[in-house]
Write a structure and sequence with these properties.
2 copies of one chain form a homodimer. The first copy, chain A, is α/β, with parallel strands linked by helices. Helices cover 38% and strands 11% of the residues of chain A. The first copy, chain A, has a 5-stranded parallel beta sheet, with helices on both faces. In chain A, α2 crosses α8 and α8 packs across α9. The model of chain A has no long low-confidence stretch (mean pLDDT 87).
Chain lengths: 241, 241
């Protein structure tokens, strides 16, 4: 098996606690697998934020069962009351866009989402006395979201250490983003080497009624391209497209 | 009337939108009055986070009515599921502490609370295309919370501008903390000059069954000292102490 400490820079950290943000998607599930592989005791945090694609939540629960994770918090927070995103509003999800079009920030952007998610991760981490927080953001094969960039993560990490009792007491929070510089293809390759069952994950912004992916939204297109480039087959069912 | 632009640095900004975090306490209500006085169109945001002193929420609603504010979001988010604070847990609220004791971060500290609150304020602000966010934090007569300090606010502001579509599109979010360097006495004096009815506000961490303040928790003691030093009478009922 690949030595992921070479990739992630993590040494074996058996039973050191980490909060891992888990949406149920491909990236966050790979991120969870990396944290577990590095020896962290995982506290998984899933945010039910009023997203239209709530199959994600079912996926998160299946992944928790699969990894036999004992500590899983699901926080309900209704970001849809603020509006402003196709993921929480009745705005139409864009389909079949090419990569140039994806480089603009799309209507699926949820205002300040990762800041809300990381702040909740920080709140739980501080209570747990965990100083490691994992988030599966990615700045390469992503959808142009500003809160996936390294400079944003770095600014949040600094804020976290100023915000908290833990931070002023000499402990240091680290926001881990093991996927941030990977292509989707690399993420999938590593995940598969770590034994991730991508059949459990849910990526699509606009799934069909049975939960199967649409195959046409930005998230599906990036995922399918990643599987293709990595030479693997996506186990999800894209038929009837 | 005092020219508050001298104090706050704000010019008249009629109908410019601002999100104001409103807990229903003395500080946030004064902060709201300052934002209104500066001419902002106020969008008030109250977070129902599982605090034990939910009389705060009733106070926030009364203040909204009093100021005839049309836009008030109440976001429910259960921080008590993380535990770790006397404000959300069954941990006893400290009473009758002296100021030296208050300089330690107390059990009433809620992990990452202001980061969670500001991130929600940012989410709403971005949706509204409002770039001004007011929070009534105070770094002098406060309870030693790390997320009330200017360096924390500055770090969050930087994060906010990196986190958002608005920030990367050339707009700049500002986190306004007009009270941050004021004593409690100064806050009360300014609030009274702005016509704040402090009888509507709720400060106590551990109110009695009828909502009246206990008069012994850190928050009550700081408030009472502030009224005394400013030469004013707190309109709340502290009898039966």
């Amino acid at each position: 098996m690949t030595d992921f400490s070479m990739i992630t820079g993590y040494n074996s950290l058996m039973n050191k606690k980490a909060v891992v943000l888990l949406s149920g998607g491909l990236d966050s599930t790979t991120c969870l697998a990396i944290a577990k592989d590095a020896g962290f005791k995982v506290y998984a945090l899933t945010i039910n934020y009023g997203q239209r694609h709530d199959f994600e939540l079912n996926a998160a629960n299946q992944i928790i069962d699969h990894y036999n994770i004992k500590d899983h918090s699901i926080v309900d927070i209704d970001l849809s009351q603020f509006g402003g995103s196709a993921l929480t509003d009745d705005i139409e999800i864009p389909k079949d866009r090419n990569e140039n079009e994806m480089s603009d920030i799309p209507v699926t952007y949820v205002p300040a989402r990762n800041t809300v998610f990381l702040s909740l991760g920080l709140a739980w981490a501080e209570t747990l006395e965990a100083y490691d927080i994992f988030i599966g953001v990615n700045a390469l094969d992503y959808s142009g979201y500003p809160d996936c960039r390294p400079e944003y993560i770095s600014a949040f990490e600094k804020t976290a250490n100023l915000a908290t009792r833990a931070g002023v007491s000499g402990n240091t929070f680290r926001i881990h983003t093991p996927l941030i510089n990977m292509t989707k293809s690399e993420i999938i390759s590593i995940g598969l080497q770590l034994g991730v069952d991508y059949g459990l994950t849910s990526t699509c912004y606009d799934p069909r009624h049975n939960g199967d992916p649409c195959g046409h939204c930005d998230a599906c297109l990036l995922r399918l391209k990643g599987f293709e480039e990595s030479g693997n087959i996506d186990p999800l069912n894209y038929s009837d497209q």
